[in-house]
Amino acid sequence: VQLQASGGGLVQAGGSLRLSCAASGLTFSRYAMGWFRQAAGKEREFVAAISRYGGSTDYVNSVKGRFTISRDNAKNTVYLQVNNLKPEDTAVYYCAAGIMMAQLGNYWGQGTQVTVSS
To answer: What is the dihedral of CA 84, 6, 50, 70, to 10 degrees?
Structure first.
């Protein structure tokens, strides 16, 4: 199983990025998917999750209204649209797969760096 995250970069505060996570080696539609992030010196935290067919989503309060998670099961890919970025969003963003939204972590991607300058 491989989860390949991409789309990170350096942006100014207020900017946007679209993170992608391409999955292979698993039956994608059988897994809930999510995004986590880890800032330097901090623990990894949950950011967003989406159910197997996209009918349910969940977000950490700090990103509600700014981030949107979506998935394309035909492309085995999950996305995280991140808008109105803030310096405190700076982190390595990881995608994860799990049997349900509340139980992500069966598989992890390698992470993509998002850096937001003020």
So the answer is: 70
